Amino acid sequence: MLYSKIEGEGKPFIIMHGFLGMSDNWKTLAGQYVEAGFQVHILDLRNHGRSFHSDEWSYEAMVQDVYEYCQANNLTRIDILGHSMGGKVAMLFATTHPEIVDKLIVADIGPRFYKQHHQDILAGLNAVDFSAKPSRNDVEEIVSQYVPDFGTRQFLLKNLYWKEPGQLAFRFNLEAFNNNLDAIGKPLADHLVFNNPTLFIRGGNSGYIQDADIDEIRKHFPNLKLETIPNAGHWLHAENPKMFFELTATFLKE
């Protein structure tokens, strides 16, 4: 069963992080949704955070995990939000289990195919030799040679934890990612459609959702509302959490 943090009372609202993220990334926003009257479930998807590791890593497998989570927690009608990879999971979940989902929110990802673009990040993570018992500073020094952006590095290093005294490790399953890397860019199948209200939010400085993608998005999600957060990149919810919350909360309450 997926690891989750459940807070609040009200309509169940599932939140799913992006690639190499975890539920902790959404802790602050989750608290705001609780205050807005939702029962918030922030998940760690398989091979991420505190959830189980598996050699199988695909959108279909992640959707099945979420479905089993809903069954185990008696969640029969939900709203759902996913960012990046989590957005792909949310899209596939909503289109294959529309009887469960009332409203869908997708943050800065589309249903199209995305070519692999995490090579530098994965090279940096794979360069860390934990058998040498590196310190946190040692790990950051190694990763910084591949990932110069400080914010991206801090996001990645949130996954460091003490496996045992003196022994650091990453929470995510790096081996599974190395072996299934093409899985993350997989498009939504052409025939899949979700007719309920759907909100896509993109970052104005991000190239993940382009104007040319909108027709394809609407093909899968005809009841589409598209919003743009100006001057925000791919991590739009972290760069402008105030506007992100206002847009999503307004949509959920409509």
From TrEMBL:
Instruction: List the Pfam families.
Output: Abhydrolase_1
The AB hydrolase-1 domain covers which part of the protein?
11-109
GO terms for MF: hydrolase activity
- Tell me the SUPFAM superfamilies matching this sequence: alpha/beta-Hydrolases
**What keywords are annotated for this sequence in UniProt?**
Hydrolase
* Record carries keyword DNA damage: no
Keyword Hydrolase present in the record's keywords: the answer is yes
Stored PANTHER family: PROTEIN ABHD11 (PTHR46118)
Protein name (record): Pimeloyl-ACP methyl ester carboxylesterase
Q: Which organism is it from?
A: Flavobacterium nitrogenifigens
